[in-house]
Fold:
Amino acid sequence: MSGNLTKYQPVSVSFTDKRPEGIDLTEDEIGAAIARVSKIGTQVAINCRRRRHSAGSYFACGRDIPENDIEETYVEKEKVFARRHHLHDFLECVGRNPKRCKYVWLKPGVDECADAIVLIVNASQAGRALGLAAYHGNFGVDLIPAAPTCAAVFRPLIDPKRIHVNFVDYFDRDLQARDCFEDGELLLSMTPKLYCSLISAIDLSPHGSQPPTGIPIYPGDKSNFPATLPPSPPGTPPARNRAAAPSPRRGSPRHTPRSPRGRRTGGNR
Structure:
């Protein structure tokens, strides 16, 4: 599937208490580590015992951080949430890695014994992957607003029947994993079993490589598409391509709404 749906390699994620032999320990946070493994193809391991005051350490690596520190970070410093009870609802939604471990091992390729498979995709590729899941009747999606990037590595353990969709949170995209992800890239993660079910649907589903047959295709008139728009003033964002609204015919009567008593209302005084 990776060849059809993403130009990068899948990432196999394993949680272990034994340090993987011959694998370098990275100082990257989880988001940057996923990008490194998927795009460069190197194996890395993260030491969960390093003392980091980060989302990855708390959610994925099992480090206990005082509740007051979490509230101060998310509500008072970063202002991700307006109220503390919003934060606690969020923490309950995201959960924490159910596997307490010493190392998070990330390697390129698909290991069917791994705990999770993570893909870097764009919106079109994500749509195809979800379409392949739908082929097997799997219509559920695990999507949590404002979810940390690190949730991608462990959410499949909490919700193994659904694909987790992760948009790479602002802190990774703008700061600690800056330039690791292109605009529009996001993460899909799932169990190896669910990943293999997507693979099995590639040759069977039109979301994969099976072309639809016996269905008429109506291409329409593309001679005036995209519509030509007048140039925007300097410094303004580009306008979306859209058809121009028809202008009213000259001499057509103006429609004036009537009041409940039948009098004409509106218009300039």
Observations:
- The chain has a mean pLDDT of 85.
- The longest helix spans residues 123-135.
- The beta strands are 11-16, 44-47, 103-108, 116-121, 141-143, 163-166, 186-190.
- The two ends are 67 Å apart (CA to CA).
